[in-house]
Design brief:
Length: about 400
């Protein structure tokens, strides 16, 4: 079944907005996606009718929010194919999830001389926390490089692993290049060597059907705001047997079962990792976002976004002097590019004047930029609510800018 794009666009109020008097063309979906009215409405409904702190109340409103939160936990469990709902930890987002693992897994399992492998195309969120851990523990960070077309040099991976290797942290889809990485293969190689794997699914959860049990991922992390949900809420999935061994990373309410001045006994999963009042209204919004994408179907979404990617790649490739960074065989709907002689900021600002929103700069992945010896790119990233007509507008916009700039 195809997508009724016109009807889908009706669900996203922001897509009707004008920018600088022009129709908004939003191609910054890798940074954050827009929210359908179903998500916006449920946030308003919960603030208007049910707002009350979770887990600590005996009254109706508190129970209503608590139930809605725990239902969302089960929704997330089913959405990613986790074995148990206690393996789903709510966090502020991908970054916090990774920091949680880097701190807590690091406390328990990383010692001096250990090694952690991180790819060369990671978002800073999946690099800096590991650097910090390595500094803290006197451990070593090892780079898994990528080739010039933006594919990980997976053949090198076995030679990078040794008896000291404890963890591989890798993104499923690169936000800077769009590469879809072979995470199943990476996990298989890692597990043959008794190494754990954290999958950064920030850029894949909204495009690909994920099953953590089939993948056998040890940890998987994502943010709701890139999945058509609210900001400030995200997920850490971890295998129960590993999470059980990890110490809490923040102290406070809810993460304890009993407290005295002498000592505290920690709560069980998932609450052990959820200190303080959770973002309980946005958790409900995340549940609504999952309903929304599941209703359309991730396979349908993926197929349509691939169509947009093919169309845009072919069109933009005809522009003189335009180079696409990231030409892997397996790509998601992200095009990073530069036009010779035009700075990425100029390109981004001039496109903005035409109502076209793209992202410019390093995309929080300076190591990716360093690989190509550049300081940034222009990035257009597509969602299922985008259209080929909008890609035509991008093409025409870039062509006009090239003419204006005399290149
Ligand atoms: N990893 C990847 C691959 C990303 O694209 C992003 C967001 N750009 C992050 C991590 C960080 O996500 P957040 O800022 O939502 O924590």
């Amino acid at each position: 079944m195809g997508l009724d794009i016109k009807k889908i666009r009706e669900d996203f109020p922001i897509l009707k907005e004008k920018v600088h008097g022009k129709d908004l063309v939003y191609f910054d979906n890798a940074a954050t996606t827009h929210k359908p009215k179903q998500v916006i409405d449920i946030l308003s409904e919960y603030y208007s009718k049910y707002n009350s702190n979770v887990h600590r109340g005996v009254h109706y409103l508190s129970n209503k929010c608590t139930d809605a939160n725990e239902e969302t936990r089960i929704k997330v469990q089913n959405f990613i194919g986790a074995k148990e709902s206690c393996e789903i930890i709510f966090t502020r987002g991908t970054t916090e999830s990774i920091n949680l693992v880097a701190f807590s897994f690091g406390e328990k399992f990383i010692k001096e001389g250990d090694e952690i492998i991180v790819s060369e195309m990671e978002h800073h969120s999946n690099l800096v926390p590991w650097q910090m851990l390595c500094q803290r523990k006197n451990a070593k960070l090892v780079k898994l490089p990528f080739s010039d077309n933006g594919e990980l040099e997976i053949d090198l991976l076995p030679s990078l692993i040794n008896n000291n290797t404890k963890l591989i942290a890798v993104n499923h889809i690169s936000n800077a290049l769009g590469t879809v990485n072979p995470i199943k293969e990476i996990i298989d190689i890692a597990h043959q060597n008794n190494v754990k794997v954290l999958v950064d699914a920030a850029q894949s959860i909204q495009h690909k059907k994920i099953n953590v049990q089939e993948l056998d991922a040890d940890f998987l992390v994502f943010s709701a705001h890139k999945l058509y949900g609210p900001t400030g809420i995200g997920v850490l999935y971890g295998k129960k047997e590993i999470l059980d061994q990890m110490p809490p990373w923040q102290g406070g309410g809810e993460m304890i079962s009993t407290v005295s001045f002498e000592k505290s006994i920690y709560n069980e999963l998932p609450f052990k990792f959820e200190a303080g009042t959770p973002n309980f209204i946005d958790i409900v919004g995340l549940g609504s976002a999952i309903d929304y994408v599941e209703n359309i179907g991730l396979e349908v979404i993926d197929a349509y976004e691939n169509e947009l990617l093919q169309y845009a790649t072919e069109k933009l490739s005809t522009i003189n002097g335009l180079r696409i960074y990231g030409t892997a065989k397996n790509k998601a709907s992200v095009i990073s590019f530069l036009v010779e002689g035009i700075h990425f900021y100029d390109m981004g600002m001039l496109l903005d004047q035409m109502g076209i929103a793209v992202r410019t700069g390093t995309h929080c992945s300076e190591t990716t930029m360093q690989h190509f010896d550049i300081t940034g790119t222009v990035r257009a990233s597509f969602s299922f609510y985008n259209t080929k007509e909008e890609i035509d507008a991008l093409y025409n916009g870039i062509s006009r800018i090239c003419k204006m700039m005399g290149v």
